[in-house]
Every structure is written in structure tokens, then in C-alpha cells.
Amino acid sequence: MNVGDRVRLLTGREEGIITRLLSDELVEVAIDNDFTIPVLRREVVVVAAEETKAFGQSAAAVAAEKKAAASGAARAAKAAGVPAAAAPAPNKAEGPAPIKADKNLTPPVQKGLYLALTHQSPELLALQLVNHTDRDVLYTFGEERNGQYRGLSAERLAAKSASKPLGHWHLKDFDQWPAPVVQLLPFQLNGTTAFELLTKRLQFKAASFYTSRQPNVPVLQREAYLFQLDEKPAAPAVVAPEKLAETLKAQLTGNAPAKPAAVAPAPEPAKAIVAPPHEVDLHLEALMPEGGTEGLSNTAILKLQLEAFEDALSRALATNMHEIIFIHGSGNGTLRKELHKLLSRNRDIKFFEDSQKEKFGYGATLVRLK
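RE: above sequence
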């Protein structure tokens, strides 16, 4: 089993997508209604491609795609400022009408390198790289969050092919998505052309994201949100062999001209990361002991607490701490639920549980780090 495989639960009729491999015996599965659960490997079976060819898509998969199409169409209309009443109402008996490609409105996708996000369920998207060119490409893929970069994958991508799923993101967490960072180097074995390395960092915005929907993406042959990574899709930047030889000769002889401006500015020296305390108190009075909290709404307070939580957790991971305790209090349980939801999706967490019930009751969570 691999991340991205569609599986069926042996104890029921539900189907879902494997989003994480938790251990040798446990996987995380996102059911088509976007409910993510841990499941033992022996309790699921991979839905074979031959089954889909022979019997077509399952009812759950068809319903998921229809719901995804309707949901995406509604968001696109909202982002474009189209009133909801302008869209035709779907027939309730038939479900939402699928989006059809209009040749006059949707131009064909040009050759190039793309990042594609495809629906695995109505709320779950898979990220893939699409090489819609005639050359192979070496690529690296990573994520940038809060100014910190983490490399996740590096592979060779053949011409006219798509990569394996590089990640799975939830639409409901759109505002918390990291910025994907992709490096691309086209190459041709025994070729006579040298290409420049391309580095692309994407930052998604709601208005442009939902209008990027393409009904039939080349190579994938399905609907996807599509973002072009190379500036010149038909012809990547090429260094002429004569110019390349002259440049190398000048550098070897010490007569090279002044170097042109770098494609990207050199990164600043990394600042030393300070480990957080073993117990982090997320109560408002502990975060802002100097006061100034009058007039803050519950939403603003929760945002402040979550930012403090993410900062402490990232520093704990960066400094190789084994565990950390977050004191969130019992109260109405809102902060505790948000913390547990974020922790359950973090691949760097071994496990988490209520901490020292005799001391904190249900007001603290112990997080064990990998």
C-alpha cells in the first residue's frame, strides 16, 4: 500500500484514500466524506485498477466526484463574483451536473511543467507534478511554512507523465496551506543543450485558485486545478553551447566578467532556534502578561493561542525535543479540539494524550515527537 491508493474497508462498504502511513500496521484513510481515520492495514484492501475498468467507478467515488464538481463550481462562481442564482439548479434526481469543457471558453493546455491539484474526495486534494513536455525533468519538491523550508521529494519525471502524489491537502484548511516550492531541471540524455535550473514558489489565493480549474488536464486526463511552473512552456530557457563554452573558459582562466545578479537573493544566515520550555501555557494571561487584551474577540484570542502553539511546536521539532506539554485549560474545549485536530495531521508527531490528569485534569496535552 502506498499514499494515494484507493482502498475499501473490509468491515463496511466505505472507500477512501490513504493519506499517511502511520506505522507498519496502521494507515490513515480519508473517507470520501473527508472523515480521516486510522485503520489497520489488515482491515482494508486496495481497489484494483482492473476493478474500475470492469465495473466502472463505485457509487461512493461517483458521488464524491459529483460533489467535488458542484463544490468547485460554486466556489469558482463566488470568487468570480457571479451570483448563485445565475448558475442553473441541478436536477435533484441526477445529482450536480458535471462541468463540461467549452472549447470557446477553455483554451487547450499548452506544453509546459505544471503543479496539479486533483480531487480525491470533495474536500481532499492530491498534489502532483505534470510534465507536459518532450523532455525528462529532474525535480525537487518541498514546502515552506512560517519562513522555514522542508524538502519532501526528489525524483526524475519522464516526458508526458505525472508524478506520484506529493501531498494531500484539505480544502477546509485552505488558509493554512504551506507554500509549495518546486525546483525543475529539464535534461536530455546525450543532448547538446544545457538548461537553466528553475525554482518556483507558489502562494495560493482563493480568487485565482478556483478559476484555475481545467476540465481535462493532459497526461492526467481528468479535471484539476492547474498552475504553470515554467515561464516559457514551449521552450525552456536554453544556454547556447558556444556561450556556455566561452563562459567556462573565462572562469577557468580567471578572466570572467562580473557575475550577473543572482536569480534569487542569497538566503540570510539562519538564526539560532531557541527550544521552547517543556510546559507551554497557552492561557491568554500567560501569553500576554503585560495586559492589553481588553476588547479582544474570542476568535482573536483563539488565533493568538494557535500561533503560540505552532511556534512552540515548530521550535520543539527543530531542536529535537522528545516531548512537550501544552496547557490549554478545560473550559468549553474549543482550544483543545483545535490543538488535537492540528496534531492529528502532523507527520512529525508520534502520539499525543491528556497529560497529568491529577494535576491538569483534561486541561493539558502531552505531545511525543518523532
